[in-house]
Amino acid sequence: MIDAMTIDLKLHFVAFLDVLGFSEMVNSDVQNNKNDHLSKLFKCHQAASSIFSEAPDCSITQFSDSIVVAKPYDSEKFQWFVKCVAKYQRLLLDEGLLCRGGIAVNKHFSNGSFTFSAGLIDAYRVESTTARYPRVVISDEVLNLIYEDDRSIMYPNLIREDDGLFFIDYIGITSGERPKSLVETTKSIINQMKNNKIPSVREKGLWLASYVDSVLNTSLGTPKFSGKSVEKARLRREKK
């Protein structure tokens, strides 16, 4: 039993990841009496320990579709933390799974079965209010703390989008690992999402296609306005 006097809230990097489409996975396994998605997620959870093994003080907790990774704050370990989260995203991707999330920095305490964390609240807020697509967004507080609010510098392993948010370039970071498999898997995921009837799922698929195309120089996305559709519109105008 932990003595309450030894409990201490300390500054941590905290990543909150949300596995996309989790409800559908659970329903599918239950209705079909299979463990397909359960096996994939558990496989990723077990493999994650090797990714973060370099830092014994780094904890990984998963409950349902929520994954929490926490590491005591050390500015020099931020890039290590970013790369590890990227590798975890790639683990999920290799199994045909996507996640979105947020990374924050704040006080945090966890002993495995009990968690009390301002960092988790902040990371969840980033994920739920800004991530939107299958990306892990870095909070402004983290960037300001690590880089002392110098936005003129280039942030290694991060991509800035047109919405001003920075997210982990997990495709770029892991592109050297099984590159052929990476393209094939992302292509399969994107095609499924683009053909989905749910607008929010299709939107995420189109975003992923654009991201992958920009990093891997592929052509998985579809131009928003094709030349043929624009030409047809022009001809219709001319006929009036």
Note the beta-strand portion. Answer: 15-25%
N-to-C span: 82 Å
Gyration radius (Cα, Å) is 20 Å
Helix and strand composition category: alpha+beta
Name the shape in a single word: globular
The number of helices is 9
Oligomerization status of the protein chains? single chain
Mean pLDDT: 88
Taken in chain order, the helices and strands follow as: EHHEEHEEHEHEEHHHH
Q: List low-pLDDT spans.
A: none
In helices, the fraction of residues equals: 40-55%
What's the total number of strands?
8
Largest sheet: 8 strands, mixed
What is the topology?
Blueprint lengths: L9 E10 L2 H10 L4 H16 L7 E5 L2 E7 L5 H17 L4 E12 L4 E3 H14 L4 E3 L1 H8 L10 E3 L5 E3 L1 H4 L5 H16 L4 H18 L10 H13 L1
Parallel strand pairs: 4-6
Antiparallel strand pairs: 1-3, 1-4, 2-3, 4-5, 6-8, 7-8
Provide a short characterization of the protein structure.
By secondary structure, the chain is of the alpha+beta class. The protein is 48% helix and 19% strand. The chain contains 9 helices and 8 strands.
Structure commentary:
By secondary structure, the protein is an alpha+beta fold. The longest helix is centred in the C-terminal third of the chain and has 18 residues. The protein is built from 9 helices and 8 strands.
